[in-house]
Write a structure and sequence with these properties.
Largest sheet: 4 strands, antiparallel
Structural class: mainly beta
Strand content: over 45%
Shape: globular
Helix content: under 10%
Strand order of the largest sheet: 1-26-25-24
Number of strands: 31
Radius of gyration: 22 Å
Distance between the termini: 24 Å
């Protein structure tokens, strides 16, 4: 079903002619300040599930302020909602998401280093326990790929760094050891790109103040490691995340002198290189995650615990486009309006229409492209809003990836 938007198209033409700066916010690299996190928090565990950012546990003060608080971010109101607390208060854990369930693994609690695994279900706001990590670890890192979780490196109970990698099967609730990482490290930034896990920076074995710029890349399919292009700075707790086919490294720290950094770097796999981007406003190591086509930096540590929330928009390349070879109209970076009708055609022939902001459309496209590459959840929740077209009764419609035949984006500018 097609729609004609003569009034809004006329408005769009007028805006283009007389106010071209209206579109600048979609293309300019920038940082934006959001409402503060409800509490100051060191070592926050941050993840996205059910199209929502969750911040779990961490430390309220130094190495003894164990926290079990859980907060969910409402992007529509730029506000935080407290949820059911995690059973075990801790920090330094690995966190990963499979099928919209959030797994918090290992870390340090009031009894010391731990191997416990607790799982949060956002839809029911409840927690459950799973099989323990084979070894106790803190300051460890985790990431999910193809419905499995990989926990890499961290501190051993003796305080030495580890090079272990464990794979968790969510279907069988079981762990197996995989090929060790070439270097023993803790406080590693992890990101997935093109089916491989990038282990970035961290603290190396041999010295308690030995931060590194190493990047080592793990292939889950072949259980092998290779060396990657080094990170531009030596740092621990680099906030690493993938967005639109590139990796972003945000902030971090240097143990020597308790130094924090606010550098931001982008890794382009086509060029196999890191490039310097716009610095984060607040110098810190923080919880970092991709959400709604942007990079969120949440809480963390400056010289003390922080509650800052800052959002990075990478912007759009200013390279010219060959008019004889136009770009794919579904590319979220080519948006010209601030809203669109997203029409999804299912394999059954049914069409569903959604009147959404371009941020919401770009988020859907990002999910679709990631899932097409073997990453992400099988379903996607679309907020129906009050202006949604169609005979629907609930506010969210869950579309299933393998039921989508095609989709169309018809952009327009709302006054």
């Amino acid at each position: 079903m097609k729609k004609t938007f003569l009034p809004v198209l006329l408005s769009l033409l007028l805006l283009v002619c007389f106010a071209p700066s209206v579109f600048a916010s979609n293309t300019i690299e920038r940082w934006e300040q959001k409402n503060d996190f409800p509490v100051s928090r060191l070592y926050p565990h941050v993840a996205v599930a059910n199209q929502t950012i969750y911040v779990i546990g961490g430390s309220s003060s130094g190495y003894t302020g164990f926290s079990n608080n859980v907060y969910a971010y409402n992007s529509s109101t730029d506000s935080w909602i407290e949820k059911a607390p995690m059973p075990t208060a801790r920090y330094g854990a690995a966190i990963a998401v499979v099928n919209d369930l959030i797994y918090v693994i290992g870390g340090k609690d009031r009894n010391g280093y731990t191997a416990i695994v607790e799982v949060y279900n956002p839809k029911t706001d409840t927690w459950s326990s799973k099989a323990k990590l084979p070894a106790t670890r803190t300051y460890t890192s985790g990431i999910a790929f193809n419905n499995k979780i990989y926990v890499i490196g961290g501190y051993n109970p003796s305080g030495s760094n580890s090079n272990t990698i464990y794979e968790y099967n969510t279907d069988t609730d079981s762990w197996i050891a995989k090929s060790n990482m070439p270097s023993a490290r803790s406080g590693i930034g992890l990101a997935i790109l093109n089916g491989k896990i990038y282990a970035i920076g961290g603290e190396e074995a041999g010295s308690s103040n030995s931060q590194t710029s190493k990047v080592e890349i793990y292939n889950p399919e072949t259980d092998t490691w290779e060396s990657g292009t080094p990170y531009p700075e030596s740092a621990i707790y680099i906030g690493a995340t993938e967005l639109n086919g590139k990796i972003y490294g945000v902030g971090g720290g240097k143990p020597t002198g308790n130094i924090k950094i606010n550098s931001v770097y982008e890794f382009d796999p086509a060029k196999n290189e890191w490039s310097k981007k716009l610095d984060m406003p607040t110098t810190r190591r923080s919880g970092v995650v991709s959400f709604n086509n942007a990079v969120y930096s949440i809480a963390g540590e400056t010289t003390t615990a922080s509650n800052k929330v800052e959002v990075y928009y990478p912007g759009v390349s200013d390279e010219s486009t060959d008019p004889t070879n136009p770009t794919d109209p579904t590319d979220p970076e080519q948006s010209k309006g601030n809203r669109a009708i997203l029409t999804i055609t299912l394999t059954t022939g049914l069409e569903k229409e959604f009147d959404l902001s371009m941020d919401e459309v770009n988020s859907f496209i990002s999910w679709y492209e990631n899932k097409n590459g073997g990453k992400g959840t099988a379903s996607y929740a679309i907020n129906k809003h009050s202006n949604n077209k169609g005979p629907f009764t609930s506010r969210k419609d869950y579309v299933i990836f393998d039921k989508i035949l095609t989709f169309e984006v018809s952009e327009y500018t709302a006054k």
